[in-house]
């Protein structure tokens, strides 16, 4: 195992709040997603009010609902 990476708290928070996902933070800071998650949990335990990223699955559910709606409209139009 290598030496643990020191992550600057200020740089992390600024990058975190300007990103849309943990993956974005990881890419921007050359970290793994696990390192980002662990750092976020650690800072939250200290009292830093980092927002949580939205789960992207909700976007898929919305898209699925819209697609199903299109199918229903198509069925009604072709009756």
UniProtKB/TrEMBL annotation:
Domain of life where this protein originates: Bacteria
Organism from which the protein derives: Rhodococcus erythropolis (Arthrobacter picolinophilus)
Protein name listed in UniProt: DNA-binding protein
């Amino acid at each position: 195992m290598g030496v643990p990476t020191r992550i600057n708290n200020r740089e992390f928070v600024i990058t975190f709040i300007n990103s849309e996902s943990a993956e974005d933070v990881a890419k921007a800071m050359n970290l793994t997603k696990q390192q980002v998650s662990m750092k976020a949990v650690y800072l939250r335990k200290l009292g830093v009010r980092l927002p949580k990223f939205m789960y992207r699955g909700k976007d898929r559910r919305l898209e699925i609902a819209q697609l199903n709606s299109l199918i229903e409209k198509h069925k009604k139009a072709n009756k």
